[in-house]
Amino acid sequence: MFHNRSFIVLVALALLVTGTIVLACAPAPTPIPAPTPVPATEANKALVRRYYDQFVQAGNLNALDGFVTPNYKRYLSPAAAPLNAAAQKQRMAGLRAVSSDFKLTIDHLIAEGDLVAIGSTYRGTYTGAFMGIPPSGKQGTFASFEITRIENGKIAEHWGGPDMMDMVLQAGGVVSAAPLRVCENNLHNVAFRHR
């Protein structure tokens, strides 16, 4: 007959062997994949797309505050001081007042590092005065090329803009050899008169 100790050791060994066999035969646990981080360039492009959708396209001027850093700078010309957020809101309000049916299409959105380049097309009818040119009712389509620099998930700097000369010509302005006059947003020094 078995001693109680021998019996306990035998049961323990049997359980150990059985457990080892069960573990050896069990399927390997399925690892839970770690969430794939969104690359910074994709996050930056998404931020810029939201900026254009909400601030530029929809005309929600107060949305700008959620997209830009406190020290945001909007450069329109190398010769002019950059705009801050408040001045950028005024500028956008002025541009939107020129066209009641303003539409924007983003044609290209390219990101590298902390920079996002935007190529877009603006369309609208000149229903408001534009740079001294009375409303013409003409349809306008013009290109814009811009670059933004992203800092901590916000737009810190913004360069470029629409082709202002093309906008003036499509609104009915005529470039002349008259003395030069500085355009509203200092993008170009051009002289013009309406047709």
Radius of gyration: 32 Å
Kindly report the spatial arrangement of strands forming the biggest sheet.
1-5-4-3-2
How much strand content do the residues show?
25-35%
Low-confidence stretches: 184-195
How many helices in DSSP terms?
5
CATH class of the domain at 40-163: Alpha Beta
Task: Characterize the structure shown.
The protein has 195 residues and is an alpha+beta fold. It has a domain at 40-163: Nuclear Transport Factor 2, Chain: A (Roll), CATH 3.10.450.50. The protein is built from five helices and nine strands; from the N terminus they run H-H-H-E-H-E-E-E-E-H-E-E-E-E. The strands form three sheets. Strands 1-5-4-3-2 form a five-stranded mixed beta sheet. A two-stranded antiparallel sheet has the order 6-9. The longest helix is centred in the N-terminal third of the chain and has 22 residues, at 4-25. The termini are far apart. Residues 184-195 have low confidence and may be disordered.
